[in-house]
From TrEMBL:
Domain of life of the organism encoding this protein: Bacteria
Similarity-based family: Belongs to the myoviridae tail sheath protein family.
Domain Tail sheath protein C-terminal per the UniProt entry, residue ranges: 290-396
Name assigned to this protein: Tail sheath protein C-terminal domain-containing protein
Stored Gene3D superfamilies: 3.40.50.11780
Amino acid sequence: MRFFYANGGGDCYVLSVGKVGSDLDANDVTGAIDLLKKEAEPTMLVIPDVVEFSLDEAYSIQGYMINHCGAEMPSRVAILDIPNGYNEPEDNPTASVDVFRDRVSGTVQKSNSYAAAYYPWLHTTVYQSADVSYKNLIEDSYANVATLLTTEFTDPVKGISVDHANAISSFTNKGMSDDGKLTIDEADAALQNLSKQYPILLGKVKRQLNLMAPSAAMAGIYTAVDNADGVWKAPANVAVQNVTAPAVKINNDMQENLNVPLNGKSVCAIRFFKGMGNMVWGARTLDGNSNDWRYVNVRRTLIFLEQSIKEAAKTYVFAPNDANTWVTVKSMISNFLTGVWKQGGLVGPKPADAYSVSVGLGTTMTNEDIQLGIMRVMVKVAVSHPAEFIEITFQQQMQKA
């Protein structure tokens, strides 16, 4: 959550599937995703903890996320992480990406355009030294900590002092020193000042905690870009905040493989550039071979337009399904799209080149449609280039006679 808000995050829904440190159950996660079918507001689906599952479970959950967004709730997109995307073998620096591409996909190809994946993991500054203590260690390791400290504080001639021994004993005596005078919290604070090895140990723990998958930060960046420039602006060429370095250094050859693979499953890179910082350097969906849906901002723009138009059209559900209503609906949609065009969301030298709206008998509807109380509207918009139109078609059930 800190990573999300540090990068511009705003309002969000948080679904808990268990306590921190408890055993994770993939079924609990997919069950939580199902609950979102009842919520229309969320526009992004992000599960940073998916990388904590076994690989089989992680890939299964990610496929479930894609299907949820692409088939069941096409009003949102999934932001995905690459499991194990931080420690690559030298002979295959994108091994985790290759496995991800083989294992993760929507049930139908079209659903892949509702997901974007980001790589690699990031070294962050989310956790500070004050946030790290013995509480970040598993209890099974307390005995090893005690052994480490005993070795450090034991003098070959004099042995170990009583004070040091009591402080160390709190790690092996259920949180209380042998003399009953020192709690493990007090011992932790004292040892961070007295010991050389203990702060080093906690420093390594902090570094591990600060190694994070990027999806939470990307959700924040999506939000920040939406608020500043609009959903049609690609969430790329943006610096990721609270990051010291990507876990894997990406060069131009690796970037090409990530961006334009043969199977179309593009993965967005996060790279360090001198003088710029750690930058989001990709904006493609997992449907990279599609001319229409390869860019995440195009998919999200169409979601925004379609959902906005559908919501506005609900005003006319109980209006007569006749020419007067059709003219009003067409005018309402045209005014909305003109506003989007003026903001730069649609491309074209004039509104007529940026969009078209059709509704009426003989154009989008038949007499049978009217008798059944169905109003069909066709909207075409130019999102990427003036000559490239993407068509939105929807129907609305009107009041029946």
